[in-house]
Design brief:
The complex is a heterodimer of chains A (291) and B (381). With 291 residues, chain A is of the alpha+beta class. Chain A has a single domain, classed as Alpha-Beta Plaits (2-Layer Sandwich), CATH 3.30.70.20. In chain A, 28% of the residues lie in helices and 13% in strands. Chain A has a 3-stranded mixed β-sheet. Chain A has a two-stranded antiparallel sheet with strand order 2-3. A two-stranded antiparallel ribbon of chain A has the order 4-5. The N and C termini of chain A lie far apart (57 Å). The relative contact order of chain A is 0.20. By secondary structure, chain B is mainly α. In chain B, helix 6 runs antiparallel to helix 8 and helix 9 packs antiparallel against helix 10. The longest helix of chain B is centred in the C-terminal third of the chain and has 31 residues. Chain B is globular. The chains are: A alpha+beta (291), B mainly alpha (381). The interface between A and B is large, with 73 and 81 residues. The complex binds iron/sulfur cluster (SF4) (3 copies). One iron/sulfur cluster (SF4) binds next to helix 5 of chain A.
Chain lengths: 291, 381
Amino acid sequence: MTIKRRSFLKGLAGTGAGLSMAPLLTGKAEAREVRRVQDDHVGMLYDATKCIGCKACETACKTANKLELELDPTGTFDAPRDLSTNAFNIIKMYNGPEGMSYVKRQCMHCVDPNCVSGCPTSALNKEPNGIVSYDKDACCGCRYCQMNCPYNIPKFEFNDWYGEIKKCELCRETNLVTSGQPACTEACPAGAVIFGKVKDLLVEAKSRVQKSPSLYLNHVYGEKDGGGTSVLYLSKVPFDKLGLPNLPEYSQAYAQESVQHRLYQYLALPGILYVILAGIAFKNRSGHKED
Amino acid sequence: MDHEKALGGKIFTGPVAFLLLLFLVCAYFLVIRYINGIGTVSNLTDHQSWGVWKVVGVLVGAAFVNGGYVTAFLVYIVNKGQYHRFVRQAVLFSLLGYSFAATSLVYDTGRYVNLLNFFIPKYMQPNSALFEVGICITAYIVILAIEFLPGLLEKFMPEGEKSDNLAANLHAFLNKVLFLTVAFGVLLPTMHQSGLGALAFLMGQKISPLWQTPWVSFLYVTSSVFMGLCIVVIIDILYHPKSLKNQEYLGLLKTLLKIGVYVAIFWIVFRFVEVIRNGGASNLFDVGFEFIFFWAEMILIVIGMIMIRKTNARSLFSGAALMLTGGLLYRINTYLVGFEGAPGVTYFPSVPELMISIGMLALQIAIFITFVKIFPIISQE
Ligand code: SF4
Ligand code: SF4
Ligand code: SF4
């Protein structure tokens, strides 16, 4: 089933255009602008071929962000199974016909994030430095972000009487303030995950692929995938095997907002419709005052 | 001419007591939910975090009540005065339905107090379809309440031609500005229904091509039209057992349903075109869970349409009910059956979770039954 879903939306790339409501409106209504990485956006580059699976980043992330340990049955080992409200960062492993690889998962800090676009109360925001931040005082707990994040990143405290959404915020209020870089990049002993400006990281990633083409797939995941992300990935094993989905080269938020903007541009359409409807109802009024 | 009358009769009857009992069970689970969190009563998880509360409560709840705007449109915009008798009951039903949708948001959302942020400019997020839905629900509840007010006021007006008290004056004033509210009452649900569909579009590939399309908003609006017509007919038949042999009456219902059938045919064709255009053609025949639910939708609606061809109360009623069920299933399918948060993740609501939805629904029906006994809502010949 997943296979079938993989790429069907690729065919919709033109749907922004397919849904041409434009003539209905001002005649000039355009799809929303495409968002791109800005020069001062920060992010991370994770190179799966360098990762040794030591999970130092997991521990560092938990310590820096004061997250609870999820102990294994013996009670001696912090053993999160997946991302959760207490694990913003996790190392997983794939071992199959394509080879063996670790993969680090955390929020991708998308260039044009679905979660931000869908959040009804502006609790999720794309900050000027590119970090996708969360504000619990704004969040109404609708969990739409969980439904629309292509990477299933936001986690909700389901067993709390007044739960919050929890996810990686690139340590923007913790390690980034105290050490100038996220806890996970600081802790990595193998240089597998590094912090920097996205534009520099992209140059670095491309040069690694160029220098040793046999070591990598010729694809920097996150450069374009899903409209781009501030966390970039390099790997030898296909990315979808590592749980990074095949996404079209545009963000779904872009597609959605384009459709919506066409319909509601400047509220012109609803406004015009209202006047027409009210006019007709007014004209018909005498017909059935009180039958 | 028909006139709306209060039905009268005993208020606290057996069925009402039963409905209230259901609500009590629901209230019990609600208390647990508010003390210990959503996870303790529901099967919701991080990978399927919308369940029956949101999908049945908000999406289906909102679909159930389209009768209000569809009849208002027919009567005040297309000027079909003969349908006037349907307006008030449809408006009450819609009012309750939307309040029901709004209340389900209060127990579904994790940080319900912050729902108020929908109305604080600094937090408003007009790009969000969910924001649009929330605002439209609230605005529409207000509009429906205004449309409904005359029915309440009549109860307090002195009999006779020239009544002159506060209630009567307000009644007259409302009648004068009715056209302003009616226009809103038609426009808002259209926007709102399209918003309900738009929610799905942002979920992208997580929804199967059998349901995902950039036109999903449009499909939600069109389906709301035929569902609205069906619900109007269903309620009307339930409340007019004496007219069921009256051919003129049945003809009136049939004309309504016929409009619904045309819209439904258009909708079905559009659905198939979109599934194929979005590369879901093979999913249509890929026997499995999604396959069954997709075809169930189609078959329910088509059988419903066929039944409506006969002009007797039983066929009209069952036909409308089948079409309505198909339409409701479409909405449930989009977000529950067609949605796959992560490979292999399945979801089925827990008993407490279901009881909360059922209990709230029961409360709504109990209120409807009681209202029509006290206030002049249902037209009597
Ligand atoms: S990965 Fe998900 S949570 Fe993170 S920015 Fe992108 S859409 Fe938002
Ligand atoms: S759960 Fe909170 S952060 Fe997520 S979309 Fe809803 S309001 Fe926004
Ligand atoms: S950036 Fe910070 S919060 Fe995010 S995964 Fe790394 S350590 Fe954890």
